[in-house]
Amino acid sequence: MTKEEAREKGNVSISQEVVTAIAAIAASEVDGIFHREEGMKRYVDTEVEGENVKVTVRVTLVYGNSLYKVAKEIQTRVRTEVEQMTGLQVSGVNVDIQRLVTPEEQQLNKKEEE
Amino acid sequence: MAEKSVKITDEDGQITISEEVVTSIARIAAEKVDGIARSSKTVGGLKSFFGGEDTASTIKSEFSDDGVHIELTIAVEYGYPVHEVAQGVQNNVQKDIEEMTGIDVLGVDIYVKKVIPVVTEKKQDSPPEN
User: Fold this and answer.
1) In this structure, are strands B105-116 and B68-77 parallel, antiparallel, or unpaired?
2) What ipTM goes with this model?
3) Cα–Cα dist A64/A58, whole Å
4) Which of A18, A61, B61, B84 is the most exposed place for a label (fewest CB within 10 A)?
5) In CATH, which superfamily holds the domain spanning A3-113?
6) Residue A67 contacts residue B101 (beta carbons within 8 Å)
7) Element holding B116 (H helix, E strand)
8) pLDDT tens across B12-23, in order?
9) CATH code at B59-116
10) Residue A64's closest chain B neighbor by CA?
11) Which residues of A touch B12 (CB under 8 A)?
12) Cβ of residue B13 closer than 8 Å to a chain A Cβ
């Protein structure tokens, strides 16, 4: 489940947890997503196989945006950040849009967390 | 009940839009129409508003290969032309689902089940006492 990178100086391995955390933070930065980054990790699954990683993100989005565009943005950002920060190849990012909330609910949620 | 969803797959991965999401869009879109009666005007408005019934039984989304078919049961506030409210709901629901998900809306069936008298606004019209 870890990346073993053979180097002259030794091995570098990156735990799956790190990959999941990076994917979660990347996804939570996208506009139109309901989750805050602290709570995002449990909605992210990663499967690491050798140099390849497959990411699945289950999200709640905010009403009013094009859900397809938001999902595309999540795919792009997760792929870019995981690849840049870990050196792994992202073979795919699945976005599972499970729920929708209104902008008012998002505001309420933000206030409660503050 | 089997979980239904729409899946869009390309080289980036798979995007899945659940039936619950499509139903939520329909509900919020319907709620924006003037003359729709809401039983609870809570912030967020996702609570049941169709005559106080369980919303699960009032909005149905049926997916097929070509798109989605929506069935809504609504209540209309007294004083609004019922057929215009219903048409407004049809237009709003179709527009929002197509714009937000890209899924084709094959039809929006409306069943107007109730007319709700508007209590709060009538109070303002009543003459002051004495």
Assistant:
1) parallel
2) 0.79
3) 19
4) B84
5) Cation efflux protein, cytoplasmic domain (3.30.70.1350)
6) yes
7) strand B105-116
8) 999 999 999 999
9) 3.30.429
10) B100
11) 72, 75-76, 79, 92-93
12) yes
